[in-house]
């Protein structure tokens, strides 16, 4: 088993330990999607409905990670099997509806129209990547300057912006970050706690403002975020 599959299995296991709609679960799911897409291991097919099948696959697998069986197949195989299933379903549906959708209809007034013109096009951009790119752009621009002002132990260079950029998928290990900023052992130990308590709430507020996260952030649930956050060493 290669390193990618090991990492994906680990992420799926962690995803299943987090509550539905939690920030931690969504972060891990995004990391799985990005790693798989970048790996180039997804099944490709030159069909007009491929992007529809791809989106349906991601929607289903992200909603049902508990269905993955590591003893049976790799994560990429599980995803590709579902993708091929979605392609078959769309192919069969297209065959069933072909005559109805392609029939040119003439009204009593003599107007002619094609029913397929009224079928809305689905977006080509995978929704998970769209969320990830929007989040990345927001962190980099930091329009309100709040991320750069949220500093760890008065270390201006160790701020929320720098940390979030390093912890967005694919995540930089905490030890690597500590070494980069030359933190002491005590500082290295406290950095993940600072990230949970001070940085994640900014991410949650941003996600909530754009509708990516349903649960609004309150001071009362900051401790909940910290307790559910799994520290990666």
Number of helices: 10
N-to-C order of helices and strands: HHHHEEHHEEHHHH
Report the span from N to C terminus: 22 Å
Number of strands: 4
C-alpha Rg, in Å? 22 Å
Roughly how much helix do the residues carry, as a percent range? Answer: 55-70%
CA-based shape: elongated
Characterize the largest beta sheet: strand count, sense, and whether it forms a barrel. 2 strands, antiparallel
Oligomeric form of this entry? Answer: single chain
What do the pLDDT scores average to? 80
Structural class: mainly alpha
Strands ordered across the widest β-sheet: 1-2
Q: How many domain units?
A: 2
Characterise this structure.
This protein is mainly alpha-helical and 233 residues long. It has two domains: 3-96; 128-228, no CATH class. The chain has helices at 3-15, 23-39, 50-63, 75-102, 127-141, 146-149, 160-167, 174-180, 185-209, 222-228; strands at 105-106, 112-113, 151-152, 155-159. The strands form two sheets. Strands 1-2 form a two-stranded antiparallel ribbon. It has a two-stranded antiparallel sheet with strand order 3-4. A hairpin with a 5-residue loop joins strand 1 (105-106) and strand 2. Helix 1 runs antiparallel to helix 2, helix 3 crosses helix 4 and helix 7 (160-167) packs across helix 9 (185-209). The protein is elongated, with a radius of gyration of 22 Å. The two termini are 22 Å apart. 21% of the residues are buried.
């Amino acid at each position: 088993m290669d390193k990618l599959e090991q990492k994906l299995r680990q992420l799926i296991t962690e995803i299943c330990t987090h509550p539905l709609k939690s920030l931690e679960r969504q972060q891990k799911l995004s990391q799985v999607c990005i790693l798989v897409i970048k790996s180039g291991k997804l099944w490709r097919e030159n069909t007009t409905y491929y992007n529809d099948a791809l989106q349906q696959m991601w929607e289903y697998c992200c909603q049902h990670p508990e269905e993955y069986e590591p003893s049976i197949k790799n994560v990429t195989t599980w995803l590709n099997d579902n993708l091929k299933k979605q392609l078959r379903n769309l192919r069969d549906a297209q065959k069933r509806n072909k005559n109805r959708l392609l029939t040119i209809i003439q009204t009593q007034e003599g107007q002619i129209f094609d029913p397929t013109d009224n079928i809305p096009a689905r977006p080509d951009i995978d929704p998970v990547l769209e969320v990830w790119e929007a989040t990345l752009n927001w962190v980099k621009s930091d329009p309100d300057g709040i991320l750069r002002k949220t500093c760890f132990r008065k270390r201006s260079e160790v701020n929320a912006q720098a940390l979030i950029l390093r912890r967005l998928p694919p995540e930089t290990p905490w030890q690597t970050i500590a070494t980069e900023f030359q933190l002491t052992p005590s500082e290295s130990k406290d950095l993940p706690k600072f990230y949970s308590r001070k940085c994640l709430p900014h991410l949650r507020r941003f996600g909530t403002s754009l509708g990516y996260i349903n649960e609004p952030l309150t001071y009362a649930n900051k401790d909940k975020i910290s307790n559910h956050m799994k520290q990666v060493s």
